[in-house]
Write the structure tokens for this entry.
Amino acid sequence: MHGYEFYVDPSRCIGCQSCVKACEECETHRGKSMINFDFIDRSRTTATAAYVCWHCDEPTCAMVCPADAIKKGEDGVVQSSLKPRCIGCANCVLACPFGIPKIFPALDQMMKCDMCYDRTSVGKRPMCATVCPSQALSYVRPDEIAGRREKPTNVFYFGKQKITTRVYMMTPAETDSVSLDVLDYVWENSHVTVSQSQ
Amino acid sequence: MSLFRSPSKDPLWKDEFSVFTSDERYVTRRQFTKFLTLASLGMFVGNVWIVAKAYFAKKPVYPTAEVVALGEIPVRGVKLFTYPTPQDNCILVRTGEEEYVAYSQKCTHLSCAVYYSAKNDRLECPCHQGFFSIQDGSVLQGPPPRPLPQIVLEREGGKLVATGVRVNGNG
Amino acid sequence: MDKLEPIQRRRGLVAIDGAMALIAILLVVQFWLLSATLEAFLAGHTSPVVPAAIFSGLLFGACAALNFFVNGID
């Protein structure tokens, strides 16, 4: 929107959790952070990754919602669940391939990142991208991201299912899609997506 | 209603409960347009029903009613009477020695009572200055859209009797 | 799923808005026609009845055509 795109680079994440704290400040979700913050393998490494909602072009969460509570607007942002409609069934929590929606049983409601819609709809940056010191989460123009060595991609393969998103993941320069099938990473020297052959 | 859905794509429930807000409004508009078309069909059926009534209705049978005795009113005189029912007010005018004309008194504009103006020799409606010809009830001037219905008079002995109502002007 | 670009979808919506406005106007005309025909018929004039029915049919045909246009816009 307004010429900006959201880029996620997990390799830059230093685990400061500024994004988590900044997201918590928002009044619209009352002190609960919508950042998905992962410790990759905590017993062995300090590596962390912070993710926001990927705002898929065909949002799985919206398609499985029995109450028609999740909507994708014309600007491409998948909104959080509509308060009057959400029944807290957690279907979207189970369905999302990235594991983004969070269920809050005390509220009987799902909440997820909506790319700080109150800010991005008027041309401001989301809170997480504003505070991230390493710009692992960044909301910039495409020509600014072109300066990095990593290249953005928004195509993901989950087995045979292809998912395209609005939010970009920064990947090594030769990669054009991110595949989540272990077979695709067996051959280390060639980037062949085995799961999509034929 | 499968006749009216476009043949492409997804099942109806996916269209009706689309996850895309832009498509949501689109489907609502589509249904509203369908409703408007059905309303249009209903009005067309109404018009066809009127045609059917016009062509298959029985011809009305009018009673015969005595109106006035010949010579009872002077030339250019007026008599008010009711025909065919007591609610239908009519006006009889003696236009000459032997000529009498009678019309319904209800102006075809908004049903005000017309009166005979001897000075102008015409029937006038005081409400909106609609004027009717005394010869055949046609509209001379003003807002009335149609001529006055004329009462058919016949002589029976020394009396004038009303035998029917004739609607002039391609009735 | 809808495969249109957002701009094309927006143009489609504008076209649908225009078609809907046109249908609404036609409906108003058709409603007036029905009421005027009925008034004439009740006053005993049967001459306008058939032309009015024909024209009402034409208006309905236009409404139906616009309805198919709206349904087939994508």
Notes: Residues 56-112 of chain A form a domain with the Alpha-Beta Plaits fold (CATH 3.30.70.20). Helices of chain A lie at 18-24, 60-64, 91-95, 117-120, 127-131, 142-145. The first strand of chain A starts at residue 5 and ends at 8.
